[in-house]
Amino acid sequence: MRFTDCRNLPLFTDLYELTMAQVYFEKKMDKTAVFNFFIRPNNKRNYFLFAGLDLLIDYLLNLKFTEDDIEFLRSTRKFKEEFLNYLRNFKFTGNLYSVDEGEIVFANEPIIQVEAPIIQAQIIETFLINTIQISILVATKALRCYSVAPDKMLIDFGMRRAHGTDAGMIAARSSYIGGFVGTSNVLAGKEFGIPIYGTMAHSFVMAHDTEEKAFENFASVYPENTIFLIDTYDTLEGVKNAIKVAKKKGIRIKGVRIDSGDLLTLSREVRRLLDINGFRDSIILASGGINEYKIKELVDKKAPIDAFGVGTELVTSADTPYLDCAYKLVEYDGKPKMKLSSKKVTVPYKKQFYRIFRNGKILKDVVSHFDEIVENGVKMLKLYIKDGEVVRRSPPLQEIREKTLINFKTLPDTFKSITQHMTLSPEVSQRLLKSTEELKKAIRGF
Amino acid sequence: MRFTDCRNLPLFTDLYELTMAQVYFEKKMDKTAVFNFFIRPNNKRNYFLFAGLDLLIDYLLNLKFTEDDIEFLRSTRKFKEEFLNYLRNFKFTGNLYSVDEGEIVFANEPIIQVEAPIIQAQIIETFLINTIQISILVATKALRCYSVAPDKMLIDFGMRRAHGTDAGMIAARSSYIGGFVGTSNVLAGKEFGIPIYGTMAHSFVMAHDTEEKAFENFASVYPENTIFLIDTYDTLEGVKNAIKVAKKKGIRIKGVRIDSGDLLTLSREVRRLLDINGFRDSIILASGGINEYKIKELVDKKAPIDAFGVGTELVTSADTPYLDCAYKLVEYDGKPKMKLSSKKVTVPYKKQFYRIFRNGKILKDVVSHFDEIVENGVKMLKLYIKDGEVVRRSPPLQEIREKTLINFKTLPDTFKSITQHMTLSPEVSQRLLKSTEELKKAIRGF
């Protein structure tokens, strides 16, 4: 059973996608629709790191209603046989444009563009938003952690507090893309090839009669590779026990982990004790309620911490646990479409967007008509699926991760703050602006 | 492919669970451990609704390392052949005690108790916390929504903003347990038998040349069953269009949905227009950024809204996106265990907990030794799995839901506030208190 097998999830969709589909089917509305996925402004995020595309592509390629699915739909009495027959042969035959994973993007940019017969474009909506939102959410949080501590090892320790198993997997993948070095999630190691890390748990220490005995047992199985968890009873006694065991057994202390207490004070004292005992190469790993704000504070105060295990706050993006994002119809059958309900006006038309750099830094982004050329602009939307066939895929995660770190260097420093809100709003090209204004007048009738 | 098939996820575990397991294996530490799962105090939640147990039981029953899993573990070079062989035959053979799904619980109560050979009890930790945490998180949020609007229809519209597919499924299940009437999630309808609901999307209206045409098309396919989305362009024009179409076609308006704008003012005017046109039975469904606080405000102001679609805020539990919860070793090989690191002291010993009622309301909860009898107390922990075999299961979801609503009536009114923090702290029995104090002294050595 592969994790990705679970991704043939045609019924992982809102009911209205299927009921609307039946109307389109009966009314023979089978023309091409264009949908844009974008993120609305978020005052706690200056930028977003795009991730999750490869999971979406897997879903699109595997999408197929099974007989079991059809049977369930029949049992709801909401669907007619003709439509159920249509679903039997349903597959995604459209085009998928997307920015590359590992790109930095901003609010109101068309990050993903789907161009497909309208039924297809609708049925995939729920999964698309679901998977892309959490992927970007965690990737962005991870990059914020990386941004304040690029020289530290950051490890995803969040799977147990992620919202379900899928989130645990996506969090591992997204945080790796966002600059983390690995994860504690073994399945993510298997499925995604992400480096896996682990130390020991308090329960392990507690299961033994003494901390010293626990350390001895662990170190005898992993003599080269033990990170001792030293805060089960008393952190400073804990590090002394680790040193005692290492000296007695003649082994190295790969590192120690502190999971509670005043990390600044404790890490300094622990470092001192390790150093005076000759364990200068042993690392200190801190965990427990870590986020980018705490990492920054500890880094600013020069806490001698080499690695952070970031868990709950990373995987739930606790300071902003969701992105207001949308997947909006912008064209149907060649006609531009826009919504005018209060505060949620969308920009119509099939689009492209361009990034313009100056001195290696992002100067501005320009959202345009799809066929426009913006001078000196780098095209951000690339064709990944053409007529249902993959024509481009995300590179291996390691490469995406490297690309992220290169892309991050192009982000102007003003946007890198984790506390001050300062972001880039994409320009809309003159031509797109004009067509949009004209359409707005036409809809409003004045 | 069934959703639950994806739950054979033995590698969905933190690496340290497996490395510790190898140490236990090599050192022949195969005695029984007892772990307690509990939630730490949360100042935004006065109570928690327990859910997710049946998913955990499925996982425990299906847990098996495949040859593919073993091969991956071998490739990490962290495990020896003897241990990998042991994993080949790994299954859960322990006991699982739990409160029933649909019970109201409080912080610091041992909600789940696992009693198993220590390797087993550790390997299941990650999945247990992962699945139970999100299940309780959403169930609790749902019950808070229900608590302020018990006479309204509440529907889960959150799957697209849930953190991944698993969270989307769990959110549907948990919100139903928490008093919702159903979900938009079709797969949750199939897998869990939850009633499914849907209306139409803005894109559907926009795909047509006019709103009127969109309404006509939809209503002609579902003449008895259409909820018109009326805010794509202008809400009041929208309801007029719905009325026009219904009159022209001689059909009923099952309802209208408003997804934006000032819901109080709009719902009043929409109600008036429906009523004067003879559509007194048509319901008004509100959606868009709904949470328990907004529902309460609208209910308090007597907004004529019959149903709420609750999405993002429900499935991410946005005001408190995670529960600080833990799975702690309390006994190993018959010996009590406790951790003393700062601020995280745990209560040792295998436990039971009792609920004492007065006049049909919860008076207090008492946490005790497992074999204690608390007079007039109702035993909360029940045996679900005995020696690896299921001896009790959660009833059908519909029954759990009914039980939740009965249990909710036993909650003292003071705890029902969604804004004032007032909760119940379980008492620790005199005997358990005394044993704990003695153990603390013994560990500290004074």
Keywords for this entry:
elongated; 19 strands; nicotinate phosphoribosyltransferase; homodimer; 446 residues; TIM Barrel; 40% helix; alpha/beta; 16 helices; 2 domains
How would you characterize this protein structure?
The structure is a homodimer of 446-residue chains. In chain A, the strands form 4 sheets. A 7-stranded antiparallel beta sheet of chain A has the order 13-12-1-5-3-17-18. Chain A is elongated. Chain A has helices at residues 15-26, 53-62, 67-75, 81-88, 118-123, 125-148, 164-177, 186-192, 202-207, 211-221, 235-249, 263-276, 292-300, 312-315, 397-409, 430-444; strands at 32-39, 48-49, 95-98, 104-105, 112-117, 153-156, 182-183, 227-229, 255-258, 283-287, 307-310, 325-332, 335-336, 351-358, 361-369, 378-379, 382-386, 389-390, 427-428. Chain A is of the alpha/beta class. In chain A, α6 (125-148) crosses α7 (164-177) and α11 packs parallel to α12.
- Number of folding domains of chain A? 2
User: What is the CATH superfamily label of the largest domain in chain A?
Assistant: nicotinate phosphoribosyltransferase
Structural class of chain A: alpha/beta
How widely separated are the two ends of chain A? 59 Å
CATH class of the largest domain in chain A: Alpha Beta
Instruction: Report the sheet-strand fraction of chain A.
Output: 15-25%
